[in-house]
Structure formats: C-alpha cells, structure tokens
Amino acid sequence: MFRQTRAVLQKLRYVRFNGQQQTWRQRSTSAKEKALQYQPGQKIHGFTVREVVAVPDLFLTAVKLTHDKTGAQYLHAARDDSNNLFSVQLRTTPMDSTGVPHILEHTVLCGSEKYPCRDPFFKMLNRSLSTFMNAFTASDYTMYPFSTQNGKDFQNLLSVYLDAVFFPCLREQDFWQEGWRLENEDPTNPDSPLVFKGVVFNEMKGAFSDNERLYAQHVQNKLYPDHTYSVVSGGEPLAIPDLTWEELKRFHATHYHPSNARFFTYGDLPLENHLKQIQEEALSKFDRIDPNTEVPSQPHWTSPREDHVTCSPDALAPDPAKQNTLCVSYLLGDITDTFEGLTLSLLSSLMISGPNSPFYKSLIEPKIGSDFSSVVGYDGSTKEASFSIGLQGMAEKDTERVKQIISQTIDDIIENGFEEERIEALLHKIEIQMKHQSTNFGLSLASYVASSWNHDGDPVELLRISDNVTKFRRALEENPRFLQDKVKHYFRENTHRLTLSMSPDEAYLEKQAQAEEKKLQEKIHGLSDSDRKEIYEKGLELLAAQSKTQDASCLPALKVSDIEPTIPITPVHLSTAGDVPVQYCEQPTNGLVYFRAMCSLNTLPEDLRLYVPLFCSVLTKMGCGNLDYRQQAQQLELRTGGMSVSTQVIPDSTQLDTFEQGILLFSSCLERNLPHMFQLWSDLFNSPHFDNEERLRVLVMMSAQELANGISYSGHMYAMTRAGRHLTPAGDLQETFGGMDQVKFLKRMAEMPDLSQVMRTLPRIKKHLLNPDNMRCAVNATPQKISDTAAQLENFMKDVAANRKERKSIRTNIIRKPLDPLNESGPSRKLLTEPHFQPCQMKTFFQMPFPVNFISECIRTVPFSHQDYASLCILARMMTAKYLHGEIREKGGAYGGGARMGGGGLFSFYSYRDPNSTQTLSAFRKGVDWAKSGQFTQQDIDEAKLSVFSAVDAPVAPANKGIGCFLSGITDEMKQSYRERLFAVDHKSLVDVAERYLGVGQRTCGVAILGPENDAIKKDPSWVLK
Ligand SMILES: [Zn+2]
Q1: 120 or 516: whose pLDDT is higher?
Q2: What is the mean pLDDT of residues 759-782?
Q3: Could you tell me which residues are beta bridge partners of residue 142?
Q4: CA of 719 to the centre of ligand 1 (A)
Q5: Is 241 helix (H, G, I), strand (E, B) or coil?
Q6: Ligand 1: distance of its center to the CA of 134 in Å?
Q7: Does the active-site annotation cover 660?
Q8: Which of 10, 255, 259, 301 is the 20 to 30 A CA-CA neighbour of 348?
Q9: What percent of the chain has pLDDT over 90?
C-alpha cells in the first residue's frame, strides 16, 4: 500500500475529478442544501465553522472547519451521493530513506488500543460493506481513506480508522513483520542462514525493480535535493534496515498528531455525527502541539544541472540497443497558487498531449525513442510543482540530439504559441470531466485537494474550477502571448532544471545483490551466539503469533442481515436501428451520451487473431475520412469524451467451453455533439486510414513499450492469464489477446524493419469486424435525449450500410442466445462452442528481470449459473482472508496473495511480488486442505459473505448501468438468483466444493510463474521454461 504520487500512471494529472450529479438516495432536503445553513463562527462538537461555500459545478457545498483545541483542519463536501467517504491525512516529511512513513503506515494498521487484535484493517475488509479501504504513503503525506454506502458501516470504519491512526499499538513484532528483521531463512531451523525479511522491505525491492518507478524516484530526489524530497519516503531497500523500532514510535508521536492532521468527509451523511464521533473518540484526548513539519521552498539553482543513473537491462525492451532514458525537469511555482497551478497544468497538456502537441511532433514522431519518459508533464504532487519532458527507449548516441530538440521546441513554442482550437479542445475536455459521473467521486476529490492542502493551500479554492477556467480565458483575451510568456519564464529562463539520463548496466542486479549481501554481513558481523539465539527465538515467536487463531471479536461488524436481500432492477429496452439490435438505458447522465457497439469476431480467420489487440489500439489513431491522424485527434478532443476500442472475451454463463468473442467500440460526448460523434464513427467504418507506415510504427512502438512496462505492476494478472490458458477455450483466447503471448508478439512486431505486411492485415481485420451484420449497440443517455439518439443512430447505420456483409463463421459450432430471454426468436448473440475441448495441465515459468515472483495456479470449476458457483466465490474470499493472507503475506513476506473465483469458471490462486516460488505453490495446496478440513466458523463464513457482497453491490455509474447485461447476457433476474445462492452458502457446501473441485486428483489445473532465475524449477522437467 504505497503510492508514490509522482506515479508514472498519473501522466497528465491536471484534473482528475469527475462530476457526479446522481442522487443515489432521494431526500426531501438535499445534503448540499442543508449544509448551506451552517454559519461561519458556529461551534459544533469542538469545531468552529470557518467557511461555507456552494460549488454548483460539482453539485456540492464545501464546509471548512478547524478543531478548537488541537488546530486540526477539516473539510466537508456535502453532496447527494450515498457513497460516503472519510479520509485523514497527516503531513509526513521524512529526512532519511529508511521508509519510516511507509513502515508506519503499515504498522498502525496492525492493531490499536481499542482494537488490539492483529491486522484490524484487513479484518474489517470482511466485516463491512466498504466500497473502498486503503492507505497511501506519498512523498510528503500519508492518507487513510475509506468509503461506504451504509451509515452504520461508516461509523464502524471511522472508529477503527481513528483508533489505528491516533492510538496504534506499534508492537515490536508488528515492526519486524511489516518493516524489516533478520531471521533464519527457514525460521524453524537455527542453522539456516540469516536473511532480511519484512513486508515493506520486499515491497520496495519489488517497486525498485521497475525501471520507470526507479527513474521517477531519482528525478524527484535530484530536482529537490535540499529537504524531504531528496529521500525515498517509501524506503530505499538498503536503508530500511537502519530504521529502529524506537525511531518508528518517535515519528508517530510527532507526525500522527491532530495538530498535523487534515480530515475530509464527503457524501450525504450528516456532518454533525462525523464531528461528534471524531471529537469523542480521538481529538478530545489531545492538546495542541507545533508539529513543525512544514516543507521549506527549494532554493533555486543559479545554473542547470546534469546527472546520470543506471538500471537493470529490460529483457522485454522493444529494441535492446535502445534502452536509455533522458529527461529534462524544471522546477515550477508553489502549488498553493491555484490559478498558476491550473495554468501550468493546461500549458503542460498543450505542450505534450496528443499528436498535435509540439513535443509529440518533435520527440515522438522522429522515433528517436519508444515513448515519452515515464516522468513527463506537469507534476503538482510536491510543494513546488515540476514539469518534465524527455524520452525512454532511446540510444545513448542520441543524447545530445534530444537535448537540442527539447530546447529548440521550447523556443518554437515561445515563437509560435498554440492554435486556438487546441485550447478550446482542452477546455472542452474539462467540461466533460466535470459532467462525467464516476462512482468514486469522493475519493477523486480527496486526492485532488490533498497535495495543495498539505502545504496549507485553500482546498475550497481548488474546487472552484469554472471560476479558474473563466479567469484563464480572460487572461488569454487580455494578453494573446499569455501562455508564451509563461513558457519563456518557466522554461527558457529557468536555471533550476535537471537533465537526468539513465542507462542499463548488465551487472546492475548483481551489484544490487552484492550491496544487499554487504549490508547483511554488516548486520550479522557483530552478532554473538546469544544474539543469534535471540533472533532464532524471535523468529519462532513471530511464526507462532502468525499461526495462532485470531480473535477479532473486539472489532465492530455488520451482519449478513444488514445486506439488502434484493437488487434494484435496471430497466432497459431493446430496439433496432437499421436491423442492428440496440439496447437503450435511461440514466441521469448529466448531459452526456454514452455509446457502445459490440462487434463479433466469429468470421475472422484464425491467423489474424493475434493482430486484433493492435487493430483495436490503432483504429482511432491513424486518421479516417478526410481527416489525417492529427485532425482526427483534434476532432476527438473537440467533440467527444474519447473513442476507444477493446478486445472482449466473454465466457458463457452456463457452459465452460462456450464464449463470445468480439471487440467493443466505446465513446461519449456532450448531447450537442452527438452528430459529430457519429460522423467520426462513420468515417472509421467507411474509410479508416491504415496506410501511413510511419504513424503505425510510432503506435506499435508505444504499445510494445507500454505492455513491457506493465508487467512489473500486473505480473499476477499475466501469471493468472497464462495459468488459465489450457483450461478453457476462453482462457486460451485471453492469453492470445492479453497475456505474455501478446507481449512477445508486439515486441517482435516492434523489431520488424518492415511493417507493410501488418498494414495489409489491418484492412482485412476491419472487413470482418466493422460489419453491421454482426454488431449490437447500447446507448445510455437521459430520458429526454433517447429518441434523438435513436434517430442519429439510425442515420449512422444508413451511412455504414455498405459495410454490411453476411459472412460465414470460421468455426461451425455457433450457439445463438436471444438478447431478450423472453423473446426466443428475436435478435441474438452468437457464441462459439467447443464441446470437445480437452483441458490440459501445464506448468510454465517465465524468467524475468525482477527480484520477486508473480505466481498463479488456476483450476477449472463451474460457470456462473451453476449451483456451486456461489459457494466457490465465498470459499475463495474466505481462504484468502483466513488462510492464504497469513501464509503468503505475513509468513511468506509477499506483498499480496489469495484466491479468486472468475466469471469464466476458473478458480485462481495468486501471489504478488513474492520472494518465494515453490513454497507459495504448496501454500495454495495447504489452503485447499484447510478448506476441506472444515476448520472454519460461521463467523468466518459470514465475513466472507459480507466481503463478496461489498463487491457485488459496488456502485455502478450511470454510464455503465445495464452494460453487464448487454455484454454477457446476465440479466437482473439471473443476478438475483445468484444473490440468493450466495445467501444460502453454508459450512457444508463450502467443504463440499473444496473437496469436489479443488482436491488433488479432482482438479484440472494450470500453473504459471513470472520471476527471477530459479534453479529448482530449471531442474524439474515438469516445467516448461520460457
Ligand atoms: Zn506498502
């Protein structure tokens, strides 16, 4: 649970809020109106109201308060959304790289005064209907957020969170388990060698095995060398063993204090109750201190700096000879200046985002590198923001050229500025983002205000987005060179800039291992026999504590009877447009229209299947009709909220060997732009451009790089996909579309000198896929807009009618399933069935350049509608919480691990960033023995049910209502019977399914591991090595 806010995933982070007007719960007086009645100066439960502000754009009322006795700050956003959120945020500013804030974040969740049981945080996952629970360590703050739709649950979780943060036990044993410890490799054998262990220690080793992450860390440390940003808040693996338990407790006392805290609540529950509970259970027990945690401004350099770092070579790099990264980072202004921050983030988008931006043209298109560097664009997660620009996947010899291009591009921008239409497109994007309704609005808001508020910026000011956009427009009117002047000031004339290069070093991993060994020897060196004996005994104590059955009865819990017995029905109606079936779903979409089309793959020749993911990723990016790819990108931004295409493998709900295969087109737009959106789709159907090889090469390279980079984040997903490959026909196709096979295929393609064969393939795929004959559509819009959308859709179908062609399916075994179960003769989905499919066992090992493993074992069980499916879902959850978590994470030191039941009928075990390999496979098997032995209680079953239901009942945004049914054919009625089967699961049915499906001899399973060189597996002939 460590999030570097400067994460590579948050490229382009200028606005991450999503509007949500949805009233999940109708009230006579809405929450936001009621909150307007608070008066500045009013005293409520130890707090004083400071400011009350209506924010109509985001449909909320903001109430700012301070706590009288401690000075704690509080922001409440009242909004008619039942997905209520709480978060408490502490300013944590470490001055060394021991990872003290990160280890503290882990250990406070290991038990507290009122809730002394081990790991109350993980236990609450099973005692609540939370829609989100987590904890984050950023560079300069630590945040503890949760959300839930249930009022009682909110109180329960609030109580546990407050106690964890302000009154944690911080036992020495928690520190060893979560932080670091010396322990015998085999804790039961005092003669086995001593090694470092600990959850954070392993987590950070895993994190730094990701080169993008490593580079981002170096940039931050070196651009802000004078205070807290010069250290690694998550922990530098080799510095972690310098942290002591005493230092951890001291850091808690000074940083986790109300005087250093910011509380945020969101939603439709009344503010008074929150304040009362927070006052009574936490704040009243503290006096004010001066936490002294401010971050000073970074002194500006008088001349630019350059530096160089190394990393491990990437075996999956699209071009092994091009593995360098180079990027120039500029220190910008203080993020608490809200308008300047908005201006710079907009400016950043204009500079780097999309094929029309100057840096895309000057750096990406000449194909000097494979993509922008992982750190790119505006970053407002530090007290003073930064902007970075550069490339990854480039050759060392191009270093000077890239530097030259960057400075030349900046000069060009100062000279030429930006086209007006691009600025309009960007502001249109903000309008869409504010209107689009997400289900985690509270959480987006909490993260959106976190950084600025952390440095005493005004969070309410940040929420007034429209005001700031208006101010931005005015600034542009008053001074046409407004943006160019900013570029001149912040880039050309800025001497606080860092040029950082990174190159691979063949010996990197070996050097790391040596450094770790050296550190280990330092720690072991002075140990006496009695020290060693003590280490051994402590190891045994920890093992015993981890193995003890735990009493969680001190924790509050919802009951199974608190769960709604029935689901709300989502009404949809079926119609047609030009003979194509269309599902309409009326939703409060706040003026947006969402369009989807599912196109079947059944007629596509087998040899083209590997190309489908590439087809999807390039289709909307190469130009269409009269538009070249630049103009197309411009129109997409100006007229839509985006157009995307993705592969779909949809398992049948009744048969394991039956599935639907296709691609899904998706787009959204403001109601006024509906004709434009359909025009863009028509152009794609009628005349997509696939003939620009240069453009295709750029896209192939970027896709290959993105896939290769993603493995160290989602290795467990790749392991699971691979393990399921030979178990069902759908599993096989999943691997083709999104598994290691696809990663390797794209890498090969990126290395091909000539893409003309690929260019000939894409139009062939298009003929099969963009064919109205095997298509169905879905529209979600406001009731007022449905009939207009239907008329436009009818026109669209006329426009693309020439693409309609009846084609024979490649395979003969096609099953038709009616879209409306009550109308057997109506329109249908065409599923592929392979009744003679022979599942087979296979163990595959992928050797990867990571120091940790990702492991999965998948077992073929039953499909969704089968009687036993519900029991397997509950069993997976219960095994995770009651057995696997303890074995794989607590004892094994992996970052995570567990079991899950998939819709395709595969029961999957997995581990994430795991120092072990075969030991984890035996933990999976022992988990099955544990389940078969029936050594669990009714309480355990009820907890697993709550946890499964919190996922089943997770809120669905208006854009996505009815879509599950549209894609998979699983109706509300089918969901309701599944719900009833979930309620009915009992002890007997759990033992029964564990024996019947998971027991050795009963199962057909696949295993896959991604990990470092492994001698045991190499010697074992039952493994296939890749
Ligand atoms: Zn963590």
Answers
A1: 516
A2: 94
A3: 90, 137
A4: 22
A5: helix
A6: 10
A7: no
A8: 301
A9: 80
